[in-house]
Every structure is written in structure tokens, then in C-alpha cells.
């Protein structure tokens, strides 16, 4: 085997090093793109979870004064928005289980309350009162809404969707809003 001149060996080494560097750069780029796609998918699922939780809240509100005779037991025990929220949480945000569990307990208490009200409405129509006037319903909904808000806040934190804090803007928005209201004068009655 003939000896390879030093210049040719240096050239071969340089080409191999450039090839290796190009391969490393392509690998790093592929990793970055894959990470961005994964983050984008997770963020998208986070927004789906938030939407499902808000839809669930609206579903509960829509059930408050309806008799239960027209709906199936499955719909009441696991409404579609809550089922979807649980699936998204399980697939993409397992760390939110500690926040989902109290919400599921609150849902059970709410359904129990709604069943009681539905039975009361059927058996003693005059003793029944609309949920909007019932302190127990208001308390159950308040707890539920607090749990939903906390779950949404935790989800937003996980997906990096945190509200921007205004810093060094030179404006005090709270002060400027109170001054603009005060400059209009007292409210006329």
C-alpha cells in the first residue's frame, strides 16, 4: 500500500471533519424542530384542555334548573366536556391529576345536589326553588369554579402561557383608570 502524502491526509481529515460537523448540525436542527413540534402540540392540547374545562363549566350552568328525566345517567356522571378534559389531562398533563381529582369530587357533589333538586321538583313542586336563588347551589358552583380556575392556571403555567407583567412602562394603569373616572365627576342618579 503506497503511503498517502501528508497534504492528502490533511485534506481527507478536513473533509471528514466538515462532514461530521454538517451531520451534527443537521442532527441538532432535527432535534430543535422535533422539540418545537412537541411543545406546539402540548400547547395546543393545553388550550384544548382549557376549552374543555370552560365548556364543562357552561354545561353545569345549563343543567341547574333542568329536570333530570330527559338525560341519560352517563351524560350526568361524565359529561362530554369533562370526559374530554380528563383524557387530555391523562395523555398530555398527568401532573395535573392532583388538581383534577378535587374537581371530579366537586362534580359528584354537584350532580348529587342536582338529583336532589330534580326529585324535590317532581315530588314537592312548591318547595323547589331555582338554583340561582339557592345558597347551597351557589356555594357548590363557587367551589367548582375555583377548582376550574386553578386547573386552568396550572395548565397555562405548564404550557408557558403566563400573563405578561407590565414593567417600567412609566404608566400606572390602576391610577390612570381611577383618575379618568374621577375627572368625569360623580355618577348622576
Description:
The protein is an all-alpha fold and 189 residues long. It has a domain at 42-160. The protein is 74% helix and 0% strand. The chain has helices spanning 6-63, 73-77, 80-92, 97-123, 135-159, 173-183. The N and C termini lie far apart (106 Å).
Question: What's the rounded overall pLDDT mean?
Answer: 82
Span of the ends, CA to CA: 106 Å
Q: Count of helical segments?
A: 6
As an assembly, this protein is single chain
Largest sheet: none
Q: List segments where confidence is low: pLDDT < 50 over at least 5 consecutive residues.
A: 178-183
Determine the strand fraction and express it as a percent band: under 5%
Number of E-state strands: 0
Helix content: over 70%
Task: Provide keyphrases for this structure.
189 residues; mainly alpha; 74% helix
List the helices and strands and how they pair.
Elements: H1 6-63, H2 73-77, H3 80-92, H4 97-123, H5 135-159, H6 173-183
Helix pairs in contact: 1-3, 1-5, 4-5
Task: Briefly summarize what is shown.
The chain has a domain at 42-160. Residues 178-183 have low confidence and may be disordered.
Amino acid at each position: 500500500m503506497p503511503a498517502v502524502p501528508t497534504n492528502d491526509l490533511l485534506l481527507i481529515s478536513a473533509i471528514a471533519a466538515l462532514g461530521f460537523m454538517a451531520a451534527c448540525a443537521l442532527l441538532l436542527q432535527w432535534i430543535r424542530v422535533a422539540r418545537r413540534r412537541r411543545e406546539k402540540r402540548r400547547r395546543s392540547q393545553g388550550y384544548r384542555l382549557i376549552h374543555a374545562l370552560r365548556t364543562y363549566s357552561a354545561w353545569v350552568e345549563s343543567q341547574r334548573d333542568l329536570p333530570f328525566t330527559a338525560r341519560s345517567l352517563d351524560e350526568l356522571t361524565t359529561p362530554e366536556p369533562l370526559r374530554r378534559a380528563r383524557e387530555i389531562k391523562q395523555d398530555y398533563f398527568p401532573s395535573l391529576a392532583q388538581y383534577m381529582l378535587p374537581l371530579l369530587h366537586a362534580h359528584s357533589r354537584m350532580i348529587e345536589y342536582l338529583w336532589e333538586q330534580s326529585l324535590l321538583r317532581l315530588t314537592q313542586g312548591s318547595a323547589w326553588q331555582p338554583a340561582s336563588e339557592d345558597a347551597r347551589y351557589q356555594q357548590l358552583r363557587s367551589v367548582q369554579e375555583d377548582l376550574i380556575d386553578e386547573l386552568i392556571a396550572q395548565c397555562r403555567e405548564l404550557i408557558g402561557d403566563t400573563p405578561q407583567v407590565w414593567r417600567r412602562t412609566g404608566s400606572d394603569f390602576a391610577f390612570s383608570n381611577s383618575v379618568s373616572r374621577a375627572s368625569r365627576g360623580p355618577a348622576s342618579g
